[in-house]
Amino acid sequence: MKGTPEPANPEGLLGRSSGPASLILSSLADGAKHGYALTKDIESFAGVRIAPGTLYEALSRLEAHGMIEALESQDRRRPYRLTAAGAAALSSYLETQKKVTEVGLRRLASNWAPA
Amino acid sequence: MTTHADRAARLLRWYPRAWRARYGEEFAELLAADLADRPRSARRTADVAASGLRARLADAGLSAHPLDHLTAARAGLATAARCGAAFLLAGLAMWSQVAIGMQWARPRHQGVTWALDLMSVALLGLALIALPAIAGLAKAAIDAIRRGRGRELRGPAAVVLAGAAVLFFGARHFQNGWPGTGGHLLLAQAHIPAWLTAFCWAATMWMTSYLAHPAALAAFPPGQLAWMACSAIASFALAGGAGQFLRRLDQPPAGLRYAIWLGRAASACMALFITGAARWLISPDGGVMPAFHVGSIDLAAMALLVTSLMLSGRALRGTTRARLALARTGAR
User: Fold this and answer.
1) Looking at the domain assignment, is residue B75 inside a domain?
2) Does B160 share its domain with B260?
3) pLDDT for B125-163, tens place per residue?
4) In terms of domains, do B198 and B286 share one?
5) What CATH number is attached to the domain comprising A81?
6) Distance, CA of B121 to CA of B124 (rounded, Å)
7) Is B213's pLDDT higher than 70?
8) Structurally, how many domains does chain A consist of?
9) The total number of structural domains that make up chain B
10) Looking at residue B86, what is its pLDDT?
11) Is B51 close to A6, i.e. CB distance below 8 A?
């Protein structure tokens, strides 16, 4: 009954729960934002509205893995910002996704092009 | 009129206290803003409920994504202890019933004797594991008191001691209050002391199929009914207090490793007990005597035994994961 250690590299976390996590990191790449601003920004660029519970579950995991950090705030809305580790993880993840996208588009173009 | 802030505060109750302490205010702000955007949304309610329940699992050491590793290690041990207590309650109720039945009637099938032997050996193993576990906890508690951190342990320790005292003295008082207990007519079955089975029977008297038959239950003497209520409360207090004590106890890495090792040994005994219990349940003459036939209460107890074992195993894995993470980061 050997315990499975937490992923040492942040890419591991991002790879497994890439949905909300990659959207949040992509949004924070533009600057620090609080929860509601994150929801609105993600809705504008991805067309999906992340529900509050899902958003904070992802935020707490990303914070626990050091990919984002909370900033001090004067009011109750606490903003979060991307860390260097989070930026590296997002970059690595997006590079992989870019390759997948390119391969998929190339194969579609060669095999499923309109006659 | 209910404001968005009131509704957000209600939704926040899905989350455990530690999570609310860290994220509560900002999450309530987000919820209030979301409620202003979309006053009615079943999807939002379901999402918050599901996420809150997952946070509660993490808070109990049953999920791989805790708020912090030290809290997760303690929470996992606490959950494993609570599961162990639930297992002991259901196990002792079942074991004492079979053992008392066999003091009155010789089973027609050897399998029932094997079942009782397996269950007895497993319980003996758990009792032997409890001794070093209690010694380890006492040492850690004394260390905590020396460091001036004994104050937060007082409450749970008092609850545990009160629950144990009520169970011990109450069960001693009631153990021979029923004609079926207190004697062994068959010398061949006398390898288990009759006083022990009677004591365990009395301590778990409230776990009875009579709960499903209120009219029959109402015919019990008032003293026994009062004891059933008291012993149930004392049992929950004992299990809850032990869990709270473990959550608050600051254990060094070696103490965590020791506790995990004992927990694994206890899991092996629990699995052995379940094997014996299953053997009894499937025996053709599981009903050693008419008053002790296998019934729905025994199937429910079996379900509780299996669930407790699975949850304690999961909690121990969570504790191990948290301990490894603590060792990796060099934190305590």
Assistant:
1) yes
2) yes
3) 999 999 999 998 888 889 888 888 888 899 999 999 999
4) yes
5) 1.10.10.10
6) 5
7) yes
8) 1
9) 2
10) 94
11) no
Residue reference for tokens 């008092």: B158
Give domain status of residue A25, yes or no. Answer: yes
Domain range enclosing B163: 69-329
ipTM score assigned to the predicted complex? 0.81
Cα–Cα distance measured from residue A55 to residue B93, given in angstroms and rounded to the nearest whole number: 45
In this prediction, residue A28 carries a pLDDT of: 96
B interface test, pick of A76, A77, A80 with most B CB neighbours within 10 Å: A76
Token readout for B138 is 């006492």
Question: Which of B33, B34, B321 faces A5 most closely, judged by CB atoms?
Answer: B321
Judging contacts by C-beta atoms under 8 Å, the chain B residues touching residue A53 are 44, 47-52
User: CA B191, CA B17: separation in Å to the nearest integer?
Assistant: 49
Element (H, E) at B51: helix B42-59
For residues B77 and B243, the answer to whether their CB atoms sit within 8 Å is no
Question: Which of 65-94 (A) contact B at CB < 8 A?
Answer: 75-78
Of B29, B54, B317, the CB nearest to A1: B317
The answer to whether the beta carbons of residues A35 and B28 sit under 8 Å apart is no
